[in-house]
Design brief:
single chain, four-stranded antiparallel beta sheet, about 450 residues, 14 helices, 11 strands, Chitinase A, domain 3, 3 domains
């Protein structure tokens, strides 16, 4: 994978996350962490920053925040905004925002220390390994690149420690207390459905049309309505709707099972949209009367902004994992995996056999089989490489926070999420929303109770 950005910018991306709330650090024994690593919004060091005389800009419970800290953070924020092509506020205003951010973080770190939270060296080392993996580098290569670009590694590790401490205190004081009920999920779904842009609703409907001839008598209309009612009752009883469409529908799409295909709601008749808006996938509406005749509709698929997609692409992959440590360096692990990759290329070994013999993962006994996975199930550095493979292709050795891998994709498929799975996705969305609100309130409360003395204005 070619890195088009300097390492300093990629450190910015990792250390300047979009949200205040960090996700739990992934456990080292699984490719399926409870959340992705997010090292918060602090920074390590801005290389080649101009040197000026330093001074105190604020005291936070008698602990100083210096102008150099503001300048370092400001430079990182500006790099990130430039990389994202985001609007850049005036520099003085941005410096004030950065100072407030530093004050808030200092208050939270002090609170963490007061309640006895600590971050040991092993956690910092694991976080450094994760940053290297997300830059697609071995730890040794990451340190060389960082040094070459002027990053002070000791200061970088100190900032990692602070970010991990912030993450832990936020998890303890905020996230662990957030509860999501079934009623919260129902309220979120109703809100999204009622407030979403109608054009964001997309429907795939199947359709049976019973034509009513112009000038038909009342008796003819009644007979045709009864015919449409029979179709609707059979559809609700579980009959194959495509077969019903081929048998009864007089619409052009009847010959292909009556399916319209996924379309924006704005491209469907209002009669169809209103009749199916509240129906779940699989629901049947009708008979409905229009100038053309009687319609019976079945909802095959429904998508709406703010709600999870009904269908997802799942991947079935295998991997071989070598864990690195005192007995096996990353360079040695990469070399071994390259040897096995060559054996796979020449057909002198099978992936399954190599995984059973060598992989240091629970999937080894299954030949490295990870089963079917949905998006977001694996850590980002693993999933990014896996998603780029076509079925049957084997990756180059991949460094992740767990070690070094070879990955082979076996199959991909489109699957419909069950209602329970969709609700689980919504549960996570609601939890994140409530956690962010709770974090803002908690941070503001801590800030209001802290003694903060503003000294000189920062000079960016």
């Amino acid at each position: 994978m070619t890195d088009r950005h300097p390492l300093a910018l990629r450190l910015s991306a990792l250390l300047l996350g979009a949200g205040l709330l960090g996700a739990p650090l992934a456990g080292a024994q699984s490719l399926r962490p409870s959340g992705q690593l997010n090292l918060g919004r602090s920074l390590a060091v801005a290389p080649n920053a101009p040197r000026t005389a330093d001074f105190i800009v604020a005291l936070v419970n008698s602990e100083p925040v210096t102008n150099s800290e503001v300048r370092q953070r400001l430079l990182r924020v500006e790099q990130q905004l430039t990389q994202q092509r985001a609007a850049m506020p005036p520099r003085d205003e941005l410096a004030r925002q950065v100072l407030e951010q530093l004050i808030a973080e200092r208050v939270q770190i002090q609170h963490a220390s007061d309640i006895g939270l600590r971050v040991d060296d092993a956690a910092v080392a694991q976080a450094e390994q994760a940053v290297a993996a997300q830059n697609q580098l071995t730890l040794e290569a990451f340190r060389r690149r960082a040094a070459a670009e002027g990053v002070d590694l000791n200061r970088f590790r100190s900032e990692l420690r602070s970010q991990l401490l912030l993450q832990r205190v936020r998890e303890r004081e905020v996230e662990a207390r957030v509860q999501v009920s079934e009623a919260d999920i129902d309220d979120f779904i109703r809100e999204q459905k009622s407030t979403a842009d109608p054009d964001a609703l997309a429907l795939n409907l199947a359709h049976v049309l019973i034509l009513v001839p112009e000038g038909a008598s009342q008796a003819q209309v009644q007979a045709l309505q009864e015919r449409a009612q029979t179709v609707a009752e059979r559809a609700r009883a579980g009959a194959d709707f495509a077969e019903l469409a081929r048998e009864f529908s007089q619409a052009p799409e009847g010959a292909r099972g009556g399916e319209f295909g996924l379309r924006p709601a704005s491209r469907l008749p209002d009669l169809f949209v209103e009749a199916t808006r509240q129906l779940p996938s699989g629901g049947v509406a009708g008979p409905l009367r229009s100038p053309a005749g009687f319609h019976v509709l079945k909802v095959l698929e429904k998508r709406q902004a703010g709600l999870p997609d009904v269908n997802v692409t799942q991947t079935r992959a295998r991997h071989i994992l070598l864990r690195t440590g005192p007995q096996l360096s990353q360079a040695e692990a990469v070399a071994r995996l390259n040897q096995w990759r060559e054996q796979l290329r020449t057909g002198t070994a099978t992936f399954e056999a190599l995984a059973r013999e060598h992989s240091q993962d629970g999937s080894a006994r299954e030949g490295g089989d990870l089963g079917w996975s949905s998006p977001g199930q694996f850590v980002p550095e693993f999933e990014e490489v896996m998603n780029a493979l076509v079925p049957g292709q084997v990756s180059q050795p991949l460094v992740s926070r767990f070690g070094v891998h070879l990955i082979r994709v076996d199959e991909r498929r489109q699957v419909a999420l069950s209602q329970r799975e969709q609700r689980d996705i919504v549960r996570n969305l609601v939890r994140e929303k409530k956690a962010n609100e709770a974090l803002q309130n908690w941070a503001q409360d801590l800030r209001s109770r802290a003694y903060v003395e503003m000294r000189e204005a920062p000079q960016p």
